[in-house]
């Protein structure tokens, strides 16, 4: 089995759109990321690979998750195309190139793309992706190369408000 975990960045400051790439997390966003990643830790969900948009709010969310899940934050891979925007097909191509020894891979990025990815990778989603939403998608495959749209099963969908 292979698992993709899609994480929308945590709550960011509502200003600075003239420099959107460098918008920072709000204190609430930092706390939300700690809550959600803490729940993943309690469930024993550990990343083998973490990939993030290089935008400040996404990489900071990824670092909080890394710290809570015992993943070396220096090993977080930054992929500019996640910030720039990808189609589901392009996202799938990135998944198909993942190292085969990785079983659980976390992706950190932005809406609307991450909502589309969750919707298009799952057989059925029907959910929303507010900030810091975390969706685990399980694929009954032994190779990332076999990943296809609409073949994933939802393992979990965590949203910060569920922990408050």
Look at the helices and sheets and give the structural class.
Answer: alpha/beta
Indicate the low-confidence ranges by residue numbers: none
Reading side by side through the largest sheet, how are the strands ordered? 3-2-4-1-5-6
Helix-strand sequence: EHEHEHHEHEE
Biggest β-sheet description: 6 strands, mixed
Query: Hey, roughly how much beta strand do the residues contain?
Result: 15-25%
Question: In angstroms, what is the radius of gyration?
Answer: 14 Å
Choose one word for the global shape: globular
- Helical content class: 25-40%
Mean pLDDT: 95
Q: How far do the termini sit from each other?
A: 32 Å
How many strand units?
6
Helix tally? 5
Short description:
Helices cover 32% and strands 19% of the residues.
Characterise this structure:
A six-stranded mixed beta sheet has the order 3-2-4-1-5-6, sandwiched between helices. The model has no long low-confidence stretch (mean pLDDT 95). It has five helices and six strands; from the N terminus they run E-H-E-H-E-H-H-E-H-E-E. The chain is α/β, with parallel strands linked by helices. The radius of gyration is 14 Å and the shape is globular. Helix 1 packs parallel to helix 2 (56-69). Helix 2 links the parallel strand 2 and strand 3 (77-78).
């Amino acid at each position: 089995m292979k698992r993709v975990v899609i994480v929308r960045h945590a709550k960011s400051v509502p200003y600075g759109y003239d420099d959107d790439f460098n918008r920072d997390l709000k204190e609430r966003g930092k706390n939300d990321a700690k809550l959600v990643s803490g729940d993943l830790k309690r469930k024993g969900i550990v990343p083998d690979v973490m990939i993030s948009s290089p935008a400040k709010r996404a990489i900071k969310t990824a670092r909080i998750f890394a710290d809570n899940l015992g993943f070396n934050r220096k090993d977080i891979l930054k992929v500019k195309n996640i910030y720039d925007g990808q189609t589901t097909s392009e996202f799938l191509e990135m998944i198909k190139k993942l190292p085969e020894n990785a079983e659980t891979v976390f992706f950190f990025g932005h809406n609307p793309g991450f909502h589309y990815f969750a919707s298009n990778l799952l057989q059925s989603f029907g959910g929303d992706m507010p900030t810091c939403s975390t969706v685990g998608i399980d694929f009954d495959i032994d190779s990332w190369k076999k990943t296809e749209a609409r073949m994933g099963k939802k393992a979990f969908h965590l949203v910060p408000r569920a922990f408050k």
